[in-house]
Amino acid sequence: MPDLSRIIQTVLVEIISEKIIERLSVMKRKALVLLDMSDAGIGDAVQELNKLYRDSWSLDVAATREVFEAIPSTFPSQTLAIPRTAWTVLDAASPMTGMSSLLDDKTMLIVPNMSMALAAKVAHGIGDDAPSRLMSTALETGKVVVAAKDACCPACRDRDDRPFVANDAYRAMMIANLEALDHYGVRLCRAPQLSKVVAGAVTPFASGPRAFIPEQKAELVTPPAPALITADSKRVFGWRDAKLASGSTVNIAEGVVVTPLAIEELRARNICVVRH
Question: Which InterPro entries does this UniProt record tie to the protein (predicted)?
Fold first, then answer.
């Protein structure tokens, strides 16, 4: 005769385990959406946010009063499905404790239309307005941050249907800001990929701030292709190296970290990366 108490205990453990897993799944699908002033890619961003909302994501929205007032004229043909009861107006004088409370029960901050101003401020540690303080607070408290770079990346701006003829120095500034955010752990993407990146950024039982590893300040010189780029301690092949690359192939040794912006630059110039 089976031990009845052991059977009951096993069943209870299974039920409790299922409830815990269900609860964790719900918790990790809660995010705060920070609407910024940029209208670049906003139509795609709204569609992607609505896709997440329909996929049972719990989304709250935060924005300044100026942004809320500009929303109807910014995308009149697009409507966010997120109920207005979940929208919060950010006060310019909001304290850091108020920012933290908005993020307390969230695993993620989503910035679907990050402006150049917001990217520059956070990249340089400036928190002189509510959006920059909120994004900085998310990074400082270990939240996952996903941001659409459509307004901040020269490669994105070149592909848009609006004039963009900035010189190399201006483009380098934009890239430097994005590289800094990338090093801070921000997941950068284009607006049409927002829901996919958000879903992929959630990990089970995830967890706390990621360690920041300072980039080595050694001179990075890209030898002419097809020479092999060898690995030094914590060697990074970044966007500036990609700009200097020539030929059709860049050979990268094991241990060299290639940044996403470097990959994008090489891809735009049809240069193939070969790992050794």
Answer: Flavin_trans-like
